[in-house]
Amino acid sequence: MKVLIISSSPRKGGNSDVLCDQFAKGAVEAGHEVEKVSLREKRLSPCRACYACMENHVCAIKDDMAEIFPKLVAADVIVLASPVYFYSVCSQMKMLIDRCLVNHKAITNKQFYFIITAADPQHEAGDETLAAFRGFLRCLPDAKEAGVIYGTGTWDKGDVYQHPAYAQAYEMGKQM
């Protein structure tokens, strides 16, 4: 299967970014084709709600979303990873989700995994982030949630190495 991992961590080697790498490691070992896109390395602009895309499914904004969107369409499995910022997804992930307006119906029949990291140690700290991810899936034809990895209680860069989510991300990638 083709696996696309979208890391929205603004920190290279940040906790959610590390969990993406663990998921990828497990998926590669299981024989899947894996690509990771780090949004911090991409130039993305927010949706302008100009609706130019409604006629021809081409966004009026010329940035790296033109490269990312076809990868979302081609993938069998999509992993969305976000650190929790003020109890929601970070702005990088929200921009990606909003920019899928260009032709979101083309992202069809996908399995989705979610990776959430937060300073707050309670899983409930990820509720709104998870709700944002699930709201996105409600707009996509035949989207299926396949798993959630909670890296809660991870504030400092590297905290996740001692967290159960570190092994869980690897195992989830390997078992999908």
Description of the molecule:
The chain has 176 residues and is an alpha/beta fold. The chain has one domain: Flavodoxin domain (Rossmann fold, 3-Layer(aba) Sandwich), CATH 3.40.50. It has six helices and five strands. It has helices at residues 15-29, 53-56, 65-74, 91-99, 127-138, 164-175, and strands spanning 2-7, 33-38, 77-83, 111-118, 144-152. The protein has a five-stranded parallel β-sheet, sandwiched between helices. Helix 1 (15-29) links the parallel strand 1 (2-7) and strand 2. It starts with a strand and ends with a helix. The mean pLDDT is 96.
CA-based shape: globular
In angstroms, what is the radius of gyration? 15 Å
Proper CATH architecture: 3-Layer(aba) Sandwich
Number of domains: 1
CATH superfamily: Flavodoxin domain
Q: How helix-rich are the residues, as a percent range?
A: 25-40%
How much beta, percentage-wise? 15-25%
N- and C-termini, Cα separation: 10 Å
Top-tier CATH class: Alpha Beta
Q: Helix- and strand-based class?
A: alpha/beta
| Average pLDDT reading | 96
Would you tell me which CATH topology applies?
Rossmann fold
